[in-house]
Design goal:
Layout: E1 2-10, H1 44-57, H2 61-77, H3 83-86, E2 112-113, E3 117-118, E4 145-150, H4 158-170, E5 175-179, H5 180-183, H6 186-189, H7 192-197, E6 202-204, E7 217-222, H8 224-233, E8 241-245, H9 260-268, E9 274-285, E10 297-300, E11 303-307, E12 315-321, E13 324-331, E14 333-337, H10 345-348, E15 360-366, E16 376-379, E17 384-388, E18 396-400, E19 403-408, E20 413-414
Parallel strand pairs: 4-5, 4-7, 5-6, 7-8
Antiparallel strand pairs: 1-9, 2-3, 9-10, 9-20, 11-14, 11-18, 12-13, 12-17, 14-15, 15-16, 17-20, 18-19
Length: 415
């Protein structure tokens, strides 16, 4: 398995994280304006500096408290100092570099190492890392066709679906595609508002009709599962996806349906931000099949799950990275997820969440029978291979985004 490419999905504008911290440990500027009235005790700034030097030299808690109290007395005794000059702040302590960075993105890769070392320039060399906040949508030509996918078996989605489809066909004069099952839905057939626009809709059947060059962008009404289904329909380039939150989970559905007219209009006019999401290209190589024969592949947005299936025994799975053996996983299974999928099954299994703009692959064991194997993150450019261990007592089962579940036996390879 390896990352194929980033897929475009609309979302809220990706903001910058963190912020430049204010340095509160700066010394008090200025000295007492009437230095001649201070006498032999010296200026306020001199005494503050001396007290701070003493505070630096202390190594136990009681000495530090005494020194801090002394600093306060020195400034309080000076009647000619202003309130700002008498106020002394303790230095703020924090680990790491100072100041803190304002972005989650790494700087541009360094291409020079010392006086002679250089990075060999290739076509795949990445020279800059784009800030997600600067990724904006643009259309090469005006979009004319839209695919509308709604959550199945949910009556609460029917009124928004009818309202959206009517607005797209009547107000925007767009070509609207829906699933073939929608046209035969009995709940929609009894709705007079839907029957008025039914003849204007175009239908398609999953796994039969190719929508690659027919759809300009996609609108999803539902939860994360609806968006995953939309990604599964396009095994090549995925059109921009606009997902409205009308389901149970909303990690991938940032839009509210209340003012959908304005939001869809902004998208059609090209005033929208983009969140690029990567997918995994997965291929199953069977033991008895011809190796020269081209193997079918699947592009997965969330994760690939390898588990023990109905067997009562623990699964034994060998993991390879770029054809090099890494480890054997003994447990209930293994999860290979994208940054998008890190908020799904992987996070429930104890993994961390990864920002969708981070090019990485998450490897998470499911209930491992080991104290040493924990979730790991590998670069997006590597190739992962998974096989059933020769000493395993049972086979394994694999599913792709919860679909296309199939069995892999000894000698088969998932890559």
């Amino acid at each position: 398995m390896k990352v194929q490419h980033a897929e475009e999905a609309f979302g809220s504008s990706a903001g910058r994280y963190g912020g430049v911290a204010t340095d509160t440990s700066a010394a008090i500027q200025g000295s007492c304006p009437r230095r001649e009235d201070v006498g032999n005790s010296g200026t306020c700034s001199d005494r503050s500096a001396a007290a701070k030097t003493a505070a630096t030299a202390t190594i136990n808690r009681s000495d530090t408290a005494t020194t801090a109290a002394a600093v306060g007395r020195v400034d309080d005794d000076c009647k000619n100092c202003t309130a700002e000059q008498r106020r002394v702040r303790k230095p703020r302590r924090r680990s790491g570099s100072w100041p803190r960075t304002r972005s989650l993105n790494a700087p541009s890769p360094v291409q020079q190492f010392g006086p002679c070392g250089r990075i060999m320039k290739t076509s795949a060399l990445v020279t800059t890392i784009q800030d997600p906040a600067s990724q904006r949508l643009t259309w090469a030509k005006n979009p004319l066709s839209v695919l509308v996918i709604k959550k199945v078996r949910d009556m609460s989605v029917l009124p928004p679906f009818i309202e959206l489809v009517r607005w797209l066909t009547q107000e925007k004069s767009m070509i609207v595609f829906v699933e073939h099952s929608v046209m035969e839905d009995t709940m929609l057939s009894s709705n007079s508002g839907f029957m008025e626009i039914r003849e204007k809709l175009n239908s398609f059947q999953d796994s039969k009709d190719d929508l690659t060059d027919k759809i300009d962008f996609i609108i999803c009404l539902g939860g994360d599962g609806t968006l995953l289904y939309a990604s599964l329909l396009f095994q090549k380039s995925v059109p921009p996806v606009m997902a409205f939150h009308l389901g149970s989970l909303g990690f991938l559905t940032p839009f509210k349906f209340d003012n959908f007219q304005q939001q869809v209009t902004n998208v059609l006019e090209g005033h929208a931000a983009l969140t690029l999401r990567s997918r995994l290209r997965c291929i199953i190589v069977k033991k008895n099949e011809d190796k020269d024969k081209p193997q079918p592949n699947l592009l997965v947005l969330n994760e690939v799950v390898i588990d023990r299936g109905p067997s009562p025994y623990l699964s034994n799975i060998d993991l390879f990275l770029d054809r090099k053996y890494i480890t054997s996983v003994q447990g209930d299974g293994l999860i290979i997820s994208t940054p998008t999928g890190s908020t799904a099954y992987a996070v429930a299994a104890g993994a961390s969440m990864i920002h969708p703009s981070v090019p990485a692959i998450m490897v998470t064991p499911i209930c491992p029978h080991s104290l040493s194997f924990r979730p790991i993150v590998v670069p997006a450019g590597v190739e992962l291979s998974i096989t059933v261990s020769p000493d395993s007592r049972n086979t394994a089962w694999v599913s792709f985004d919860g679909r296309n579940r199939q069995e892999i036996s000894h000698g088969d390879r998932l890559c």
